[in-house]
Amino acid sequence: MNLNQVTVPSLNVAKSVAFYKTLGLKLIVFTHSKYTRFECPDGDATFSIHQVERLSDNSGIMVYFEEQNLDETVEYLINKGMEFNQLPTDRSWLWREAQLNDPDGNRIILYHAGKNRKNPPRRLA
């Protein structure tokens, strides 16, 4: 099994498209203002947005994008006007993470984990 894509809700797909293009995702589907899909610049996963009439309360949606050059990317995005809730921070689970919200409040975590992404010291045998 392989993860194909993650889809997040949005009240304004066009506004979200601008946000995710700034993050570096490549727009590959935009057939109408209610749905769009991106390719991630690395790997084979896709990411999509669909329009909703109302966002659910406290959805808990968190989307993680791995970035090899996290600190440089965050600095670049700040210079593009993006606001971060958390600047790059080393976490106890051996990932380095920065956090921001997309226009609809979905939590976006840019991170670098290296080998610890799939093979952390606590991985089950």
TrEMBL record:
VOC domain location: 2-113
Keywords: Dioxygenase, Oxidoreductase
Pfam families, alphabetized: Glyoxalase
Keyword Oxidoreductase: yes
Domain of life according to the entry: Bacteria
InterPro entries in the record: Glyas_Bleomycin-R_OHBP_Dase (IPR029068), Glyas_Fos-R_dOase_dom (IPR004360), VOC_core (IPR037523)
GO MF, one example: dioxygenase activity
Record bears the keyword Oxidoreductase: yes
Protein name, as recorded: Glyoxalase/bleomycin resistance/extradiol dioxygenase family protein
